[in-house]
Batch of 2 targets.
Target 1
Amino acid sequence: MDRGRVEDYARYIDLRSGVLRRRLRWTSDGDIGRFDLTFERFASLADPHLMVVRVQVQALDGPASVEIQASLNSHVDNWGHPHWDLVSQGSSHQMVSLEVATRSTQKTLAMSAQLTTNREDVSFEGRDDRGNPGIRLRTELEEGGSFTVDKLVAMYTSRDADDPLAASQSNLLEAIRLGYEVLFNEHKDAWREFWNRSDVILEGDDEAQLAIRHALFQLRIAASSDDERVSIGAKTLSGFGYRGHVFWDNEIFVLPFFTYTQPSLARNMLMYRWNTIQGARRKAADNGYVGAQYAWESAESGDEVTPRWVPDWKDPTKKIRIWTGDIQIHITADIAYAIWQYWQVTGDDEFMRHVGTPIILETAIFWGDRVEPVSDGYALSQVIGPDEYHHHVDNNAFTNAMVRWHLEKAVELREWLHQTAPEDVTALDRRLGITAETLTKWRDIAGRLKFNHDPKTGLIEQFDGFFELPDVEWDRYGDRTASMQSLLGIEGANQHQVLKQADVIMLLCLLRDQFDDKTWRANWDYYNPRTDHSYGSSLGPAIHAWAACELERPDIAYKHFMRAARADLQDARGNAGDGIHAASAGGLWQALVFGFAGLELTQDSHRVSPRLPTHWKRLSFSFCHRGERHEVDIRRA
Ligand code: BGC
């Protein structure tokens, strides 16, 4: 099609039923005439091993020979680095298979595919290009004649089956038996079920409505339905940015949506942290601590995988040292927070007993060792908080408050376990070496860990010495199109009161019951104008939207909300090609539900305090609290 003319090109993603459609009219540059082509493809939500493509070709102007080639291609790479070693391949008649292995971990992926058509007079021929086997299919079309080809692909990895090729082949045979319509209906039913529990309806603002549905769609296709050994990476599975690594983005930004509407998927992702706790133990030990310390960037094993050096974006011949893997330690408390939230929302005591409490206690042990006793209490020095423009800071307020919270919950949970499963406590105490002194120490740290909160003004200092740094002369940067860090340089930003993303404000949102009105207002007024909203982190805007709602400022909240809404749909940050901004997508849901709707759970019920922008006519969603489903439907009178 690089010759001839393409017209009427259109491509749609149908969020309701998870189908990508493409159609175009192609006119040959010779005398063969015009053809209408449509493509329809889906990765089945009902069967994660199955992918389906349907292609339809219609000859508009006269008889024509049509040939379609379909293959399984192993020649894919990650920024120039090939993914796969070839293991085996084969093709015969309508069937083709390909088995490849990841290059360093040698995990096998086996795929089997079959082409079927609605016409009798079709010839099939195998094509055996190395690493790219396929099928060539030919037919003769009469004028106005059309034909449809379905490509069904089944895939298994060595993580799913002992013999992935055999598993993919038997899955394929079953898919062929069921046929396209049945497979498509099963897929659509799975999507209907998802939207039924998780949709958010927003009337009066089509752009915001589309943005939230797009965000939830992206999150759903990134979550595994049944695998407890994976989580969602910062860029989901949609791009190579951050190479699939899992950050706090998942627990703090993405998970609440799943916890409230799809708890079984949230549980899977928390199980990922349980299944990788060995890596967290190794990280603590490597740093000279006891207990478990989660990696800032985590992959398959839970070991720290943050790159230490990356090419300088201004001069790629130079390298920049990345410190987050060494000292951005708050993620360990963030994971505890997500576990606690999951428990509060679902009431899943089984999980809390066998997984949640053991994780929270073992990570509390790490904190007990990591904090430094100082003359007037305890400190956590040399860290990076959520605002990554500042590194090697002492007593980051977010980190310290989350650690304090973590240790308080650890004491509470140990008591809960003692009451509900005394035999478990004995075993856990023995395994982790928890004694009465441990609990006393945790209480003491929680009470005396430094937290610079001025009772008179309500202001919380982001870290020791933050208020002494000079302010940025914002007037000088009125028409900038780059982040303050790239304009001031890494050290320049480090030496100014400028934030990459919500830090103290993030804390207010997460522990919102702990802070009074005065504190909310003082910190919002102080930190909001010092934040690099458009060019800093994509994690910021949705949280600022939520926070502005807490301050009853839906007008300001709306501006922040739309900044998050456009991160991917309008590529507002120019990096959507690296992949979907998962945290921003999850943040959108939280801004709507916790912010604009003001949802709060109480002991056995919930309340909402709506504060919608004036042009929003309706905000409606549902959630599940302790097994019971609730609908929230806010309508402007
Ligand atoms: C943000 C982090 C985030 C990471 C991955 C960074 O730019 O500052 O908070 O975890 O991106 O999304």
Target 2
Amino acid sequence: MKHFITPADVPSVKELIEEGLRQKANPTADNKLGKDKTLCLLFFNSSLRTRLSTQKAGINLGMNVIVMNVGADSWQLEFEDGVTMNGNKAEHIKEAAAVIGQYADIIGVRAFAGLTNREEDYQELVLESFRKLSGVPVVNLESATRHPCQSLADLITIEELKLKTRPKVVLTWAPHIKPLPQAVGNSFAEWLNLTEYDFVIANPEGYDLAPEFVGKAKVTHNQAEAFEGADFIYAKNWSSLEHYGQVLPGNEDWIISAEKMKLTDNAKFMHCLPVRRGLIVEDAVIDSDNSVVIQQAGNRVWSVQAALKKILEEL
Ligand code: CP
């Protein structure tokens, strides 16, 4: 595998899930593979799980891992071509990405959507710049529109827990006070569409995800209807795509409650974390035996470890 940016980079999603489960069963089996190789993780935004799980995965594979908070620890980067750099951005991505490529064998990048310009965000300027200019493989640690390390961990978790060959999986929008990117919702939909699961997306009017991510999923604006007979409830907030980056008034009643979970077939509760209790989900749900958020977060190590392994094998 050359990069891990979208599922299109992955020859077989099924095989990658199996690889993640193999890594989980034997975390250091491939610790010679990354010897003398350097993994450089670049964070334009905050992180707990992604940062630590990717470091851990690199260490498990025998890699040297270096981490930088871009902007806070380095120069501010300019991404536009042909500009006169007379503002606060001291270094152009053309030099920065090429230089980092001299130090790293694999680069991981986290760069969220700005949520002001939909076209710019959906062009994935930051990730694409590193892919084109660094000269080394790039791992997407959550970009403007996708979070593949999360989605692969989510699929690994469902694979571990499913009681039916074709479980009903529901991605449901849930309320938040701040505008959040669509990346996790987009990515979960994109990866779920590569499975044979019965997949439903529930969101209020005005919050439909982009059609290229929705794919063959059933979409409903009726949350209770979606919950009927579900085996997995995956909650996530995202801001409006149509009214780009906005939080629309109302919809506070889309919180995941114990009452709504009773409509399901004893469904597992999933969320990528961090989660705002009392806003996205009631304590009674996230603290219940059906909550699998910690297992899901634990699987973040094995998802990125599987992806890094596939890249290392082709270096
Ligand atoms: N789920 C996730 O990506 O968590 P962090 O933002 O803490 O990395």
